[in-house]
Write a structure and sequence with these properties.
CATH superfamily: Vaccinia Virus protein VP39
Distance between the termini: 45 Å
Helix content: 25-40%
Number of domains: 1
CATH architecture: 3-Layer(aba) Sandwich
Number of helices: 8
CATH topology: Rossmann fold
Structural class: alpha/beta
Strand content: 15-25%
Number of strands: 6
Length: 286
């Protein structure tokens, strides 16, 4: 049974996220992360030795992701980010051979439910390939804001969204029923003149704070200045420029198919665990 979107708590303001993405497009987006992900996705798909007829792209901002693999497909549908809170993808069962997504799943309220919907929509031996921000993304900004608010305002408010780690994402793929699940992390460290230059790039990515529990009043100027000072003190290189970490988690999984490599059945091994531990392998063992 696929979890319903309403079963998970709402963490993100979807309408605000859409508004800020649109604003970023109007102002000229900072697309270096998305461009890198699009390039990596093209390379990863190139290594897959099979054809995909029907594909869907889910919630990816911009157009960069569509270009690398469009010629390999018979049809490509794009599911745009909804302005409402619902995360129902409305995908027909076993209708797709490939699903891709880039830098969108970190804003999903019910990631287990979305993954389960994608698994149901894939034909046997269909592939999900996605990239999302996770791990220690923006850990420097999170720590600097927390220290500044604690010092200047006597408390801490939610500033940076919580990110899933690698093991959590792998477990969710298995939970959703994907075969051969694989996850890995691409750590990207970007340097800036100061914290305000980083925050400007985040605005141009449409990736500023969209938590529903975010503070609704403007941040005090003193707090912002102290945050930038702490950032420079803790996370600057010798030349004075600061570091910002972006962890891109890649996840892939296949809809089960009989042609896929299967784990051995219990009891089918030819060497007992006891013999292996004692080093008593057969004479031709390696």
């Amino acid at each position: 049974m696929i979890p319903t979107p309403d079963a998970a708590p709402n963490l993100f303001d979807r309408a605000l996220l859409l508004m800020r993405r649109n604003r970023a497009l109007r102002q000229g987006p900072a697309s270096f992360l998305l461009d890198r992900v699009a390039e990596d996705l093209a390379e990863r798909l190139h290594a897959v030795l099979r054809e995909f007829a029907d594909a869907a792209e889910i919630w990816t901002p911009g157009e960069a992701l569509r270009k690398p693999y469009r010629d390999r497909l018979r049809s490509l549908s794009r599911i745009a980010l909804p302005g409402r809170q619902s995360e129902n993808l409305a995908l027909a069962p076993e209708s797709l051979d490939l699903v891709v997504s880039a830098l969108a799943f970190q804003f999903v309220n019910d990631l287990p439910g979305v993954l389960a919907q994608i698994r149901r929509a894939l034909r046997p031996d269909g592939l999900l390939l996605a990239a999302m921000a996770g791990g220690d993304t923006l850990t420097e900004l999170r720590q600097s804001f927390a220290a500044a608010e604690a010092e200047c305002e006597g408390g801490v408010s939610p500033r940076v969204a919580p990110f899933a780690d690698l093991r959590d994402v792998g477990a969710l793929l298995q939970r959703a029923g994907f075969a051969l699940p694989v996850t890995d992390v691409d750590r990207i460290v970007v340097r800036y003149d100061n914290a305000f230059a980083l925050m400007q790039d985040l605005r141009r990515m449409g990736a500023t704070n969209v938590l529903l529990e975010r503070r609704r009043t403007p941040t005090r100027r003193a707090t912002l200045l102290r945050m930038a000072q702490i950032y420079g003190e803790r996370f600057a290189d010798a030349d004075g420029r600061i570091r910002a970490t972006f962890d891109v988690i890649w996840l892939s999984g296949w809809a089960p198919h009989e042609s896929q490599q299967q784990p051995l059945q219990p009891g089918s091994g030819k060497v007992s665990l006891r013999e292996a531990v004692r080093g008593r392998l057969p004479s031709n063992g390696r």
